[in-house]
């Protein structure tokens, strides 16, 4: 999501925006190796991008009080920085999340759209992200990725197939049947999801399809940014999932449950 100039390189917003939308569409429809999900029950995951302070504090606490854990996707250049919408948590907050059982995911170092990075720059950026996170959470698997801004590309999807176990987009939908592990769909929990009935309908759809629903958000605050949600929205989603007996799992746990291949050597 939008960050201050201090937090990321200056890029030409309009050209990148057009390119990333086109690249995302090509990646969506291009042939890809697909995985047949083998879960015996429907699954829901809660993920947080960029890790605003409120996600590391309020969001994580709410999941823990519900007895579950989430996946937090970290862009390592953003630690402690202020954006147009929130302040990003410090590095020690990421380490604390890992100690409490949450999964830490890769979200690049620079937090720019992947189409702004050629293959060499992307390899370098991901290497820096892994290096920093490996120092923060030693011994933890860093195997799952979320595209900055939610937009994929065919080239980067192929690279990630050699570096990561999965890659999550913000393309809306429930993952079900045969899925592309490097184009995982998710649902944004943001201000547009104010109606609890919309959340309930998504969970019911997940149950009918024996699918995997990934909720994605950023800050958890009152009022939230355009890319975040209120504590009440998150609480409703958690309660609605638990009332229906759907299993809540981190992205890494869900991949195990759907029988996904283990992560390649990074």
TrEMBL record:
Top-rank taxon, per record: Bacteria
The keyword Signal belongs to this UniProt entry's keyword annotation: yes
SUPFAM superfamilies hit by this protein: Glycoside hydrolase/deacetylase (SSF88713)
Stretches of the chain forming a coiled coil according to its record: none
UniProt cross-references to InterPro entries, sorted A to Z: Glyco_hydro/deAcase_b/a-brl, NODB_dom, Polysacch_Deacetylase
Keywords: Signal
Occurrences of domain NodB homology (ranges): 42-249
One Pfam short name: Polysacc_deac_1
Keyword Signal: yes
Purpose: Is involved in generating a small heat-stable compound (Nod), an acylated oligomer of N-acetylglucosamine, that stimulates mitosis in various plant protoplasts.
Family note: Belongs to the polysaccharide deacetylase family.
PANTHER family: CHITOOLIGOSACCHARIDE DEACETYLASE, PTHR34216
Name assigned to this protein: Chitooligosaccharide deacetylase
Lineage of producing organism: Bacteria, Pseudomonadati, Pseudomonadota, Alphaproteobacteria, Hyphomicrobiales
